[in-house]
Write a structure and sequence with these properties.
The structure holds 2 protein chains of 2 kinds.
Chain A lengths: L4 H10 L8 E5 L2 E4 L4 H10 L11 E3 L10 H17 L11 H7 L8 E4 L13 E4 L2 H10 L1 E5 L3 E7 L8 H12 L8 E5 L1 H4 L3 H9 L8 E3 L4 H8 L19 E6 L6 E3 L7 E3 H4 L6 E5 H4 L2 H11 L10 E5 L3 H9 L2 H7 L3 E2 L20 E4 L15 E4 L2 H10 L9
Parallel strand pairs in A: 2-3, 2-4, 4-5, 7-8, 7-10, 8-9, 13-14, 13-16, 14-15, 16-17
Antiparallel strand pairs in A: 1-6, 11-12
Helix pairs in contact in A: 2-5, 6-8, 12-15
Chain B lengths: L2 E3 L6 H4 L10 H5 L9 H5 L5 E4 L11 H8 L4 E4 L4 H10 L2 E4 L13 E3 L4 E4 L2 E4 L5 H9 L2 H6 L11
Parallel strand pairs in B: 1-2, 2-3, 3-4
Antiparallel strand pairs in B: 5-6, 6-7
Classes of the chains: A alpha/beta, B alpha/beta.
Chain lengths: 417, 163
């Protein structure tokens, strides 16, 4: 019987065929909790009568949303979680490693064919590693911590066939923003997005993570890139695992097949206050901005920083009217950028380079916007109030567009720089 | 039940902004529900009021603080044309009943309506709107009193039985 990659992953976990639409309790391979949603999950685990977690080695704990602690309650949450990790023997990366999704990927904690859950909506990022990965709430996580399993409705899939080659200074973020614009903020609700085609095959892991990361912005339960040599190269560098074949059957049943070509795609910008409110950069070029944020689980990797630095080129300074905040997504990515001289370039150009964390993206820690201010951000959400005041505006773009705009103090087409 | 009417794509940052996520007490969260987007909500909401919205209610972050803030405000039912997936699940798990009704355009802000969960309909002035039934496996969790109560009743779970 033919099946999608997602149906195959569920079928392999249950050792019998499981079709889309079925509701099934399945064991999970790994579970991630962070400092915002983790404390509640731990409390719920206790309320459920949990004493020992199902398997401490399958639980990933780290702090990234409010690090270093930005308030006393945040510090108390960190202490509460550290204590739980110690009691349970859970490996806690604490605040040392960076943003959860980047850390799970770079530590090899997600691999092809696995089912991974996390108490963060962007857990779908690990679809870039060929895993079925999805965000869950704290109560669901309490259940996972106790039983190592969770109910899922196995999702139907939308096949995205993405052909062509990107033009200069256009890439993965522009693609995923244009998909969000086309499919809409709820166009893939309850479904999985399967990314295929030449543009995906030729994309590096950083770009694939950017794409899978934003599947949730279309309402999807998961985004997944069928594993290929690029995936296996990344995963086997991080974990002892033998590559195997895992892909949808050619005649698998999809909810929908959508075809795109990126060859003529322009840099894309999501304008306030919805992620699916997407236009070509040319339509908003000239919009004055007060702050630029380059970072997040969407675009805080070395490749993203390199893309921004390439646009910065030999320019001395970012525009003085703009606050530029650069936050590498992890300690590892920070070190790569440091050793390549990128951090020095950003600091020389006037940017604030912060230690790895979620930064302005969660709208609670720092880098907040005042009423009337405008931000251009490489993160994933431009909801009203997402980065501070509900009377502020957030635009979303690629690192290249963000860097070009930081040079001029207004939204700028990176192809023109 | 008095209606608080909202539009499409109400995200969880709007329901409870990021700066309040160190709070876990529903009553405390309720003081900041819709802060900055609809300030009169927290001050004016009364026990038993109902939130009615358009498409994709609860999109965005997985924060369970969102259903908890509504529960803390005394809201026990949210009716929308559709829900974002994680919010829907979080609502069921925490005991906030999410009901899907394609015709929420017919419901006005401030209107008093009644919901007949068993009959699967909403009654308003001179009209009756159908709501979609809650899926069976979700109903089991609701009937157990939420996922916590359901989990307490189990020593272990049987995996891979389809429902």
């Amino acid at each position: 019987m033919s099946a999608t990659i997602v149906e195959k992953i569920f079928s392999q976990h249950c050792k019998r065929p499981i079709r889309a639409g079925r509701v099934v309790m399945v064991p999970v391979d790994a579970a991630m909790i962070h400092d915002i949603t983790g404390p509640l999950a731990i409390r719920v685990f206790g309320e459920m009568g949990g004493e020992r977690v199902f398997d401490p080695e399958r639980i990933i704990m780290l702090f990234d949303h409010q690090v270093p602690a930005d308030s006393i309650p945040a510090a108390e949450n960190h202490v509460f979680m550290r204590r739980f990790a110690d009691e349970q023997g859970i490996r806690n990366y604490d605040l040392r490693e960076g943003v959860c999704h980047q850390v799970v990927m770079e530590k090899g904690r997600a691999a092809p064919g696995e089912i991974v859950v996390g108490t963060d909506s962007h857990t779908c990022t690990y679809g870039a590693a060929g895993a079925f990965a999805t965000g869950i709430g704290s109560t669901d996580m309490g259940f996972v911590l106790k039983f190592g399993a969770l109910y899922f409705r196995v999702p139907e899939s939308i096949l995205l066939e993405i052909d062509g080659t990107f033009g200069r200074r256009v890439g993965a973020k522009d693609l995923i923003l244009s998909l969000a614009g086309d499919i809409g903020a709820d166009g893939a609700t309850y479904m999985a997005l399967e990314f295929t085609g030449r543009a995906i095959r030729e994309m590096d892991m950083a770009g694939r993570m950017t794409c899978a990361n934003m599947a949730i912005e279309m309402g999807a339960k998961a985004g997944i890139v069928p594993p290929d040599a690029t995936t296996w190269g990344y995963v086997t560098e991080r974990r002892a695992i033998e590559p195997f074949d895992l892909a949808s059957d050619p005649d698998a049943s999809y909810r929908e097949r959508r075809h795109y070509d990126v060859t003529d795609l322009a840099p894309q910008v999501a304008v306030p206050h919805n992620v699916d409110n997407v236009v070509d950069v040319t339509e908003v070029a000239g919009t004055r901005i007060d702050q630029v944020f380059i970072g997040s689980c969407t675009n805080g990797r070395y490749e993203d920083l390199e893309e921004a630095a390439e646009v910065l080129g030999s320019a001395d300074r970012f525009a003085e009217s703009v606050r530029v905040i650069v936050i590498p997504a992890s300690r590892t990515e920070y070190l790569k950028a440091l050793r390549a001289g990128l951090i020095e370039r950003f600091v020389e150009a006037g940017a604030l380079v912060e230690a790895p964390c979620c930064g302005p993206c969660m709208g609670g820690a720092f880098g907040l916007l005042a009423p009337g201010e405008v931000s251009l951000s490489t993160s994933n959400r431009n909801f009203r109030g997402r980065q501070g005041s509900t009377a502020a505006s957030v635009y979303l773009s690629s690192p290249a567009t963000a860097a070009a705009s930081a040079l001029y103090g207004e939204i700028t087409d990176p192809r023109e720089v | 039940m008095r209606v608080w009417k909202f539009g499409d794509d109400i995200d969880t940052d709007a329901i409870i902004p990021g700066r309040f996520l160190t709070i876990y007490d529903p009553a405390e969260l309720a003081k900041h529900a819709f802060e900055g987007t609809r300030d009169e909500f927290a001050a004016g909401v009364r026990d038993g009021d109902i939130v009615v919205a358009g498409r994709n209610f609860g999109c965005g972050s997985s924060r369970e603080h969102a259903p908890l803030a509504l529960l803390g405000a005394g809201v026990k039912i949210v009716v929308a044309k559709s829900f974002a997936r994680i919010f829907y699940r979080n609502a069921i798990n925490t005991g906030l009943l999410p009901l899907v009704c394609p015709e929420t355009d017919a419901i006005q802000d401030g209107e008093v309506i009644s919901v007949d969960i068993k009959a699967g309909c909403i009654d308003l002035e001179g009209r009756r709107l159908p709501v979609e039934p809650v899926p069976d496996f979700m109903k089991r969790i609701v009937e157990a009193g939420g996922l916590v109560a359901y989990a307490r009743s189990l020593d272990r779970v049987e995996t891979c039985n389809t429902a």
